[in-house]
Amino acid sequence: MGKAARAIIVENNKILVMHRNNEGNEYFTLVGGRVNDGETTEQALKREVMEETGLQVTAADLVFIEEHPEPYNQQFTYLCNVAPHSEVAIQEASEEAVLNKLTINVHQPMMVDISSFKRLAFRTPQLQTAILDGLVNGFPPNPIKL
């Protein structure tokens, strides 16, 4: 059973998202990805965030668990804090950097205003709704299944 770990990162009234253009199918999702064999979801989260943004996760609280079709049967979403940083950019050695060079599956991390987040073509609407609720009412202290 495949698993994925995703990060909710909010700074200065902005939320970090990944803009994807997968063979002309454009959408937004959270930063994150596959949990490798031998990794915990939190280890995968930290690795994926570093690869896709250059950001170092300093704290992570699991807030949502979603069931998904293959290849990721479960997606674990964490509310994260990150170390001070300058820019947000895909790291050269990452899988996403390789795919970006092929230009068929482009990844672009970006910070968007929270007020704009609800209008994004988000990949998983139920997660987008849960994030919007968390931004307004606070995120759950214990993980919620979506």
Give your account of this protein's structure.
This protein is α+β, with helices and mostly antiparallel strands and 146 residues long. It has one domain (3-145): Nucleoside Triphosphate Pyrophosphohydrolase. The chain is built from four helices and eight strands, in the order ββββαββαβααβ. Strands 1, 2, 3, 4, 5, 6, 7 and 8 form an eight-stranded mixed β-sheet that branches. The model has no long low-confidence stretch (mean pLDDT 89).
Please summarize what this structure is.
This protein is of the alpha+beta class.
Furnish the topology, listing elements before pairings.
Layout: E1 3-11, E2 14-22, E3 25-29, E4 31-34, H1 41-53, E5 57-67, E6 74-82, H2 95-102, E7 105-113, H3 114-117, H4 125-137, E8 144-145
Parallel strand pairs: 1-6, 5-8
Antiparallel strand pairs: 1-2, 1-4, 2-3, 2-7, 5-6
